[in-house]
Specification:
Layout (H helix, E strand, L loop, with lengths): L1 H42 L3 H16 L4 H11 L3 H15 L4 H6 L6 H13 L2 H56 L7 H37 L1 H13 L1 H24 L4 H11 L3 H15 L4 H5 L8 H13 L2 H58 L1
Helix pairs in contact: 2-3, 2-7, 3-4, 6-7, 7-8, 7-10, 7-15, 8-15, 9-10, 10-11, 10-15, 11-12, 14-15
């Protein structure tokens, strides 16, 4: 009996030791995870917060405030915890004697062109000017992107609302009325039979349909991230679609001309400037085209001549104006004017497109709900006639 108690006591002690070891490991892992999360939070910041910080930082530097003092002022003024963490990290690195461009070089989320302008500003002693220019261009691009998203918001809400009402009527309302229709011995209208079949099918297989859509969407997204062929195919298809193609081309032309203008105006070589712009562009067609153009510019080719090989991506009138600007030596100014011209064109195009899409969506919404209402009311009206007789 004593031997049994002894074995039992050893077992309990062994289990306690194992549990303590596992708890210590979990504690260390959790501390490492917190440390890693805190470290990443100091390096990662949203685009909005990033522009908010550097817009005000450029103002303070322009006023003659030293970098470390300017960052400290921003740290005291901000109430955002994310901005405070980022500014604290920035201040610590500057106090150590690191250049701002070197600090930004460790942050993958910062555009490469922005880093280049900051580095040029430090080398030439024009950091406040270069930072103001870089932030201004990023703000302009962000504003253009937000205008596109905002213009598509209202039609998207109408489309989602129409689909939600239709599904609610088919899945929530129509099945409750179907037993009434089954009591009728007369032939139901075609629209009612179509709705009954659709409602029954959605009731039986609707969840499976949602599951398949979610799985297919996830697989498509993963394939798009991993397969360059699929990304290129999708980019080529988007370029060929009439309305979407114009928006995609114009948006990328605005990005290319804006970034090239500020880089060339800052003294960056044309080949290096095109390379930096290619890193900023996400569309694979434009990225590959700009990389090849940069390789040709290194050999002494003209920018306009190389753009002419990609007329599906860059319009002829743009290439002609760039060719004239190269001959006159006013390429940066011409690129600025082109970016403003295409920004204005894109804004006007979106306004016309939304003015056309909104009434069409309203008509589709009315016809869809009207079709369902008529399909429900018509058999009920026939039932009341039968009962009145």
């Amino acid at each position: 009996m004593n031997n049994l108690f002894y074995q039992f006591d050893r077992l309990i002690g062994h289990l306690i030791y194992r549990a303590k070891t596992i708890s210590d490991l979990l504690l260390v892992s959790s501390k490492q995870l917190v440390t890693l999360t805190h470290k990443n939070s100091t390096h990662h910041i949203s685009e909005r917060d990033f522009l908010h910080i550097f817009q005000r930082l450029s103002m303070l530097l322009t006023a003659g405030v030293p970098q470390s003092t300017a960052v400290s002022i921003l740290y005291d003024q901000t109430s955002s915890e994310h901005q405070k963490l980022y500014l604290k990290h920035l201040h610590c690195e500057i106090i150590k004697g690191r250049l701002l461009s070197k600090v930004l070089a460790d942050q993958a989320a910062v555009p490469l062109a922005f880093k280049t302008l900051i580095s040029l500003g430090e080398q030439t002693g024009t950091l406040p000017k270069q930072m103001t220019t870089a932030v201004g261009e990023l703000l302009a691009l962000r504003q253009t992107k937000q205008q596109i998203i905002t213009s598509l918001l209202y039609p998207s809400i109408l489309l989602v609302l129409t689909m939600s009402i239709t599904l609610f009527l088919l899945v929530g309302v129509f099945p409750k009325i179907t037993p009434v229709f089954s009591t009728l011995h007369a032939e139901l209208p075609l629209s009612t039979r179509i709705l009954m079949s659709t409602s029954n099918w959605l009731g039986s297989y609707g969840l499976w349909l949602l599951f398949l859509i979610a799985v297919a969407g996830g697989l498509f997204w993963v394939s798009l991230q991993r397969s360059s062929r699929l990304a290129n195919l999708l980019a080529k298809i988007s370029i060929t679609i009439p309305v979407v193609g114009y928006i995609v081309r114009t948006w990328h032309i605005i990005q290319v001309t804006r970034m090239l203008a500020i880089l060339l105006d800052s003294g960056v070589r044309s080949s290096d400037a095109v390379t930096l712009v290619s890193h900023h562009i996400h569309n694979p067609l434009y990225k590959v085209a700009l990389e090849r153009i940069s390789e040709e510019l290194v050999l002494g080719r003209k920018l306009s001549g190389q753009l002419g090989h990609y007329k599906t991506l860059f319009p002829v009138d743009m290439i002609g104006l760039i060719q004239v600007a190269e001959q006159a030596g006013s390429l940066p100014k011409t690129l600025v004017m082109l970016s403003e011209l295409y920004t204005h064109d894109l804004d006007a195009y979106h306004k016309k497109l939304m003015a056309l899409i909104e009434p069409i969506l309203m008509i589709i919404m009315g016809l869809t709900i009207g079709f369902i209402a008529v399909s429900i009311i018509t058999p009920l009206y026939g039932l009341t006639n039968v009962l009145s007789q």
